[in-house]
Design brief:
Blueprint (H helix, E strand, L loop, with lengths): L8 E4 L2 E4 L10 H5 L2 E3 L2 E6 L2 E4 L2 H15 L7 H14 L5 E9 L13 E8 L5 H6 L1 E9 L16 H13 L4 E5 L5 E4 L3 E6 L2 E5 L8 H12 L4 E4 L3 H5 L3 E6 L3 E8 L2 E2 L7 H17 L8 H5 L1
Parallel strand pairs: 8-9, 8-15, 12-13
Antiparallel strand pairs: 1-2, 1-7, 3-6, 4-5, 4-6, 6-7, 9-10, 11-12, 11-14, 14-15, 15-16
Helix pairs in contact: 2-3
The structure holds pyridoxal-5'-phosphate (PLP).
Amino acid sequence: MRIEDKPGLAWLNGFVVDTATASLTLFNHSLHYGFSVFEGLRSYSTSTGVTIFRGPEHIARLFHSAQLLGIQVPWSSEKLLVACHEVLEANRLWDAYIRPIVYLGNGLAGLKDASVEINAAILAWPWAPPSGAREQGISLLVSTHRKPCPPSFPLQAKASGNYLLSKVAYQEARQLGFDDALLLDADGYVSEATAQNIFIVRSRELITPDNETCLNGITRNAVMDLGRKMGRTVRQLPLRPDDLCSAEEIFLTSTAAEVLPVTRLNNTVVGNGRPGPLTRSLHSAYSELVRGGEPAPNAVSETAKGA
Ligand SMILES: Cc1ncc(COP(=O)(O)O)c(C=O)c1O
């Protein structure tokens, strides 16, 4: 989607504003230092209206990310969740991706400027999950770039600066003809993809890395619950790339991608080269869950949806 096709209204510091006129100054502190935190949520149309999947969990993670960076969010979590709905309504969006971001403003005095004001903005746009890629599966390149060691950086923060690594790894993968990249930690254990957690299926068990360098994914937690409900053993274990090569199935999870099969890792074909049966079942169960398989306490009414 081109920027000019994006919905015109956003929430900025308490007001619904036109994205065409809302702008950052060239001295923006977060732009220069990557010092901001953000979230990615999805809204879905359900039989009871529009619901934001696991909205409170996402907003809680936004606050946790901010805390790890020492940023004081100037709004309550309740207010930000309501604001997410306001942006959907203002843009008449039902099935959408929502991006809250907390960032600093003018930073003329440089890195050490402690007086920079803190802003919160929420954007939303109709970004559909990748259905074609889900049908065929994607290819992953094990990146030459590695996650930093945990004490060196707050990796559990969904902080803009952390995505520098994801961007570089993604570009490397694309240049070599792959769809996305897999990141290992400094010791060579599997961490996650550029913006998704990873799972493998081995001997009917569902396994995801036990790794402090990967984000505590909300989709990952939902999928682990679904796997258990399907009667599968779910484990968090340290994984090496070789464990992935011998897996029966591999898939990624994220709010944006939902449950996404991986059918090739470097030059190794995963399973029979097609999305595996457990991956497909988990995606169906996840689709049901997000579209009303769980109560939607923050659902917007049908009337509001159609207004
Ligand atoms: C680095 C990274 N890992 C994992 C995820 C998946 O997290 P979630 O399922 O909460 O969207 C994301 C989501 O954006 C991410 O950026």
